[in-house]
């Protein structure tokens, strides 16, 4: 929630963990196919989301200061509103649903001046079943996936007679990638506090959240514009860049991932990263019948990086004489 119109006061309320499971939503089609990803769309036979909604409005002040509930929309009703509107949604994306439902709240309740909705996709994967044609994906049975998931935040505000989008961001969260060899970390500051040895071929395990914003938010909200970028494509770009590059650090790796995303998707304005270093501890360098090593979970504390990039970073990179080839 922004604090404008509210002076310096924080004031909002809402509902978290609104689980929405919609079957047979509109299939996602018309996306740009990129070399790094086999993703071509999604059937949306099952469309699952865990939503958090927060609403604001000056008229809610007396509910806090006087116990006056006359304008309070119960958070239980908000949950019902979201669930019932999932039946009316005609689009194919989580971002689109958040925008649709947020607008309906503002249109329905004049006391609401702003709505922020935050969602995490509940990922379901097709199971493979036997058939006379070999193994094929079931169109009826799905398994709950515990891997990474897509995320979205949409914020809308009333502006006179209109409703404006004031914030929109898409994400892939909790991506966990391990590369068994071909990463290093050397050349860092060495002083009396340094005990870490330099490494030129470490296994590198990263936890990664990637966020993106569109130049024109409508491209991310309206799947019929054919400019939607799916979280699976961003995930696959990250994996491809990790595979292809011998990275000297996580810092440089996420920069290269960002360049590749910006290059593939000129409709995006900004990419940002939060990464976490979970590199395993090496216990046995070389097993008896090599190659092979033995590792165990790392001990805390864990390092992290945060970085954001725009199309200007890609332009600067492309205008720079390159030694190592282009992204
Ligand atoms: O990729 C890395 N970046 C760092 O900044 C860092 N620091 C550290 O101890 N290990 C690593 N690895």
Give me some keywords for this one.
327 residues; alpha+beta; eight-stranded antiparallel beta sheet; two-stranded antiparallel ribbon; 7 helices; globular; binds uric acid
What report would you give on this structure?
The strands form 3 sheets. The chain has an 8-stranded antiparallel sheet with strand order 1-2-3-6-7-8-9-12. The chain has a two-stranded antiparallel sheet with strand order 4-5. A two-stranded antiparallel sheet has the order 10-11. The two termini are 37 Å apart. With 327 residues, it is an alpha+beta fold. Strand 6 (149-159) and strand 7 form a beta hairpin. It is globular, with a radius of gyration of 23 Å. Helix 5 (231-244) crosses helix 6 (250-264) and helix 6 (250-264) crosses helix 7. Helices cover 22% and strands 38% of the residues. The mean pLDDT is 95. Uric acid binds next to helix 6.
What is the succession of H and E elements?
EEHHHEEEEEEHHHEEEEH
Give the CA-CA distance, first to last residue: 37 Å
**Which small molecules are bound?**
uric acid
Main beta-sheet strand count, sense and barrel state: 8 strands, antiparallel
Helix content: 10-25%
Task: Quickly count the helices.
Answer: 7
- Helices and strands: which structural class? alpha+beta
Oligomer: single chain
Parts with pLDDT < 50 across at least 5 consecutive residues: none
Rg value: 23 Å
Instruction: Give the percentage of residues in beta strands.
Output: 35-45%
- Average pLDDT number: 95
- In total, the number of strands is 12
Please list the strands of the largest sheet in the order they lie side by side: 1-2-3-6-7-8-9-12
Shape: globular
């Amino acid at each position: 929630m922004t604090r404008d119109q509210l002076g310096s006061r924080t004031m909002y309320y809402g509902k978290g963990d609104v689980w929405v499971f919609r079957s047979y939503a509109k299939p996602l089609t018309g996306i740009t196919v990129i070399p790094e990803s086999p993703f071509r769309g999604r059937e949306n036979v099952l469309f699952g989301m865990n939503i958090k909604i927060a609403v604001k409005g000056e008229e809610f002040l007396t509910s806090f200061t006087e116990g006056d509930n006359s304008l309070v929309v119960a958070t239980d009703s908000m949950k019902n509103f979201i669930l019932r509107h999932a039946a009316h949604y005609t689009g194919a994306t989580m971002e689109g649903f958040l925008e649709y439902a947020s607008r309906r709240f503002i249109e329905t309740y004049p006391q609401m001046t702003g709505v922020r909705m935050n969602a995490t996709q509940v990922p379901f994967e097709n199971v493979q079943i036997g058939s006379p044609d070999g193994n094929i994906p079931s169109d009826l049975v799905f398994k709950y996936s515990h891997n990474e998931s897509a995320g979205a935040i949409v914020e809308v505000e009333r502006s006179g007679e209109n409703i404006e989008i004031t914030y929109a961001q898409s994400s892939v969260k909790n991506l966990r990638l391990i590369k068994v060899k071909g990463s290093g970390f050397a050349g860092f500051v060495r002083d009396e506090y340094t005990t870490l040895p330099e490494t030129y071929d470490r296994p590198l395990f990263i936890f990664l959240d990637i966020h993106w914003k569109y130049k024109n938010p409508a491209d991310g909200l309206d799947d019929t514009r054919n400019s939607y970028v799916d979280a699976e494509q961003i995930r696959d770009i990250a994996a491809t860049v990790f595979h292809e590059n011998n990275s000297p650090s996580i810092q440089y790796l996420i920069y290269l991932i960002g360049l590749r995303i910006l290059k593939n998707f000129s409709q995006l304005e900004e990419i940002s990263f939060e990464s976490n270093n979970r590199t395993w501890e090496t216990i046995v360098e070389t097993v008896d019948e090599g190659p092979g090593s033995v590792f165990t979970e790392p001990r805390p504390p864990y390092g992290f990086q945060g970085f954001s990039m725009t199309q200007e970073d890609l332009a600067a990179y492309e205008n720079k004489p390159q030694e190592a080839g282009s992204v």
